[in-house]
Write a structure and sequence with these properties.
By secondary structure, this protein is an alpha+beta fold. Helix content is 29%, strand content 29%. It folds into 2 domains: 281 residues, Endonuclease/exonuclease/phosphatase (Deoxyribonuclease I, Chain A, 4-Layer Sandwich); 32 residues. Strands 3-4-2-1-12-11 form a 6-stranded mixed beta sheet, with helices on one face.
Length: 334
């Protein structure tokens, strides 16, 4: 039976998106990529996962990141990586993509493929965001392989939301169908979805329901990964083959708030994948929430500043009115 695997997913915030993010959120003090890169390497190297799924990174920056990680004198871990570039709606390469790092002292890559949001058709290239799928053979067990799929799904509402939902369903269908004997499938990344249903039309569901209904499990942690918005949208799900029973165990990441916030708008998410004949057999199903009213709100929503200013004006007006009434009443009593 294979040994436990430590796996991480981490959205490292592409520099171009960091500039846009800073304009919208001036309280988030984004450093240059050169400074943030060192903090990202530090955050990863404190945990040294054997598999790491990385989002919002270009291939040249990924090469530098892996080089820096491989010079860290910890556990003798040496990483190799594979990378898939996102594409725009016309099939042109975007600035960033998704990557999977794997420890060479533990895994050997035996297959690679990319699942795009829109498949290639006739003379047209595949389009949209990329999901990267690796098949990794475990050096500790000749009979064990893992499919690892890294995703960064479209977020927002409307067309983007629908495209992300359809992309996830496509990924789940294809990787689960190709699950081989003795192979477990891992889907990890930025899902752009917390556990709260966010669609406005019934049936109300979360993207996590798609994974749950297909038999995927997660470790039950609800610690925020998108720290400014206080929500968890970065997830690690595992589909276990009956021949390879697995459990998941949450890792309590010991990174301090400044270390996380100075590196990215996301915190790294990490978990153990543990063979179920070993301790910590606490695999948990994601439990879909029941249908909610049409005007439901996400958990702990962060109100935009315009809304906060409006509420401040309303409260101030009420305060002035109450004070005026009190003064008038006092004058009458005299």
């Amino acid at each position: 039976m294979s040994k436990p695997i430590q796996i991480m997913t981490y959205n490292v915030l592409h520099p171009e998106y960091a500039n846009t993010y800073l304009q919208k959120n001036p309280e988030f003090h984004v450093n240059t990529w050169k400074n943030r890169q060192q903090k990202i390497v530090s955050n990863i190297s404190q945990l040294y996962p054997e598999i790491a799924v990385i989002q919002e990174i270009s291939e040249d920056r990924l090469q530098n990141l892996v080089t820096l990680l491989n010079t860290q004198p910890a556990k003798g871990t040496v990483y190799k990586y594979e990378f898939a570039q996102h594409r725009d709606p016309w099939g042109n390469d975007k600035k960033d993509g998704v990557a999977i790092l794997y420890a060479t002292n533990r895994f050997e890559r035996t297959a690679i493929r990319t699942i795009y949001a829109v498949d290639a058709a006739q003379q047209q290239k595949a389009k949209g965001r990329a999901a990267l799928v690796l098949t990794l053979a475990d050096a500790n067990d000749n009979n064990t392989t893992y499919q690892v799929c890294g995703v960064h799904l479209e977020g927002g509402g409307g067309k983007g939301r629908k495209e992300g939902d359809q992309h996830l369903q496509k990924v789940v269908d294809r990787v689960t169908q190709r699950q081989l004997g003795g192979c477990a499938t891992i889907i990890a990344g930025d899902m752009n979805q917390d556990e709260t249903p966010t669609n406005t039309d019934p049936p109300y569901y979360s993207r996590l329901d798609i994974l749950s209904k297909a038999g995927y499990k997660e470790d039950g942690s609800r610690t925020s990964s998108e720290w400014m918005k206080r929500r968890k949208i970065d997830w690690i799900f595992v589909h276990k083959n009956p021949l390879q029973p697995l459990a998941l165990r949450q890792i309590n990441i010991s990174l301090t708030v400044p270390e996380v916030q100075a590196a990215s708008d996301h915190a790294p998410v990490c978990t153990w994948i543990v063979p179920s004949n070993q301790p910590h057999q606490d695999v948990r199903d994601y439990q879909p929430r029941p249908a909610v009213p049409h005007n439901h709100q996400p958990r702990n929503p962060v109100q935009p500043k315009s809304h906060q200013r409006k509420m401040f004006k309303i409260v101030a007006a009420i305060g002035v009115a109450v004070l005026t009434l009190a003064v008038s009443q006092r004058i009458r009593n005299k």
